[in-house]
Design brief:
By secondary structure, the chain is of the alpha/beta class. The protein is 49% helix and 16% strand.
Length: 358
């Protein structure tokens, strides 16, 4: 009989956890998608037969699906009555579930299938999954324009992360009243809207810069939030240059999408667009200096290489500092988010850098 020494046993057990990850993930998400969690929130106790009658499928299939959440004590099972009820799953709030399900759904739609082609994406420098599954040659951000499922799954997650982290970002966004702000890669305007919300006294004007196809959604968002007078949209491609005439540039969740060469090109464009003394504020997912304390490396390499860009991935804060200096900026602030203040389910840990054009 083969035996394994302690070290090998440990490694093989960890491999087992990796193998089980995607299976557990879909089993749990399916409980939400089928509406089982919702049902148990409303009805407290239900048998597999009653659940099946309400959500579809057979009693046997529902029993199978619920073995895992029962094992985890997310859901309880009463052997005597055959009734299921929420157990530990009753603890998170609706807001918590909203955040978690936006992430889960993004992982299902954007990651699970595309990652089947991760190795090919790494080899070719293209997001092969998008080509195979959507017939699309390009990045996820371009693909969202013509694929509703990708746009909705990614957009909900992105807005949820941005809505959460921007409070921290704007607590450090220290600008003079009346300045003109450019939000580079500002998507459909949420960053501009939040700038007005978090800095009401400063009366800032904010232009959102992103691919031209985002304009209609951005303008609709500005209108809906009553900021149309102070917020505008400029369509373009950052690699073809940025508009001038702004005092402050924000770059949020963007530099991590690129490798060093492209990050330096973007910082070069920002440098060219600003006057001396102009400022850039960067919000970016980072890897901590000490990798072992992070779950970011569990997520981002596969996400960027296999699902979105086929390049990029976060860096350490010290790397971004170095690159900003190389691009002709003086870094005046470089801080990372306090993990203790983050919801425990949150994956990205953010860094914030403020730098001045010399
Ligand atoms: C990860 S999102 C970040 C959105 C927003 N800044 C936020 O924090 O919520 C990246 C954005 O970059 C935009 N983008 C990607 N490549 C770009 C390019 N070359 N020029 C302009 N925008 C680009 C995408 O359309 C997308 O809206």
């Amino acid at each position: 009989m083969t035996t394994w020494n302690t070290g090998t046993t440990q490694v093989l057990s960890e491999f087992k956890e990796y193998a089980l990850g995607p299976m557990r993930f879909m089993n749990l998400l399916s409980c939400f998608e089928l509406g089982i969690v919702d049902l148990l929130q409303k009805n407290t106790r239900m048998t597999a037969q009653e659940i099946a009658e309400s959500v579809g499928g057979t009693e046997a299939a529902i029993e199978q699906l619920l073995f895992l959440p029962v094992k985890e004590d997310f859901i309880s099972f009463d052997e005597r009555t055959g009734a299921y009820a929420l157990a530990r799953m009753a603890l998170p709030t609706d807001e918590d579930f909203g955040r978690v399900i936006a992430w889960f759904n993004m992982i299902k739609v954007i990651c699970l299938r595309q990652l089947y082609y991760l190795s090919e994406s790494v080899k070719t420098g293209k997001v092969v999954g998008l080509r195979e599954l959507y017939g699309f040659d390009g990045t996820l951000y371009e693909a969202t324009a013509e694929n509703d499922d990708l746009r909705m799954a990614w957009g909900a997650m992105m807005d949820s992360v941005t809505g959460f982290i921007d409070e921290w970002f704007f607590a450090h966004f220290d600008v003079r009243p009346g300045v003109k702000v450019l939000d580079v890669a500002g998507n459909t305007g949420l960053g501009a809207i939040l700038t007005r919300k978090h800095k009401p006294a400063e009366d800032l004007t904010v232009a959102c810069f992103d691919f031209p196809e985002k304009e209609a959604d951005a303008v609709a968002n500005f209108q809906e939030h009553g900021v149309r007078e102070h917020c505008s949209f400029i369509g373009g491609n950052v690699f073809k240059g940025l508009p001038k005439g702004f005092d402050v540039v924000m770059i949020k969740h963007f530099l991590d999408m690129f490798d060093r060469e492209n990050v330096l090109k973007i910082l070069g464009s920002v440098h060219e667009a600003l006057e001396p003394g102009g400022e850039v504020y960067i919000l970016v997912p980072i890897y901590p200096e000490e990798l072992k304390s992070s779950s970011s490396v569990d997520f981002f390499p596969a996400y960027f290489l296999g699902c979105t860009m086929a390049e990029g991935g976060p860096q350490r804060l010290s790397t971004y500092q170095k690159w900003l200096t190389e691009a002709g900026f003086e870094v005046v602030t470089a801080i990372s988010q306090d993990i203790a203040t983050m919801p425990p389910d949150m994956v990205p840990v953010h860094g914030l850098l403020r730098a001045i054009k010399k």
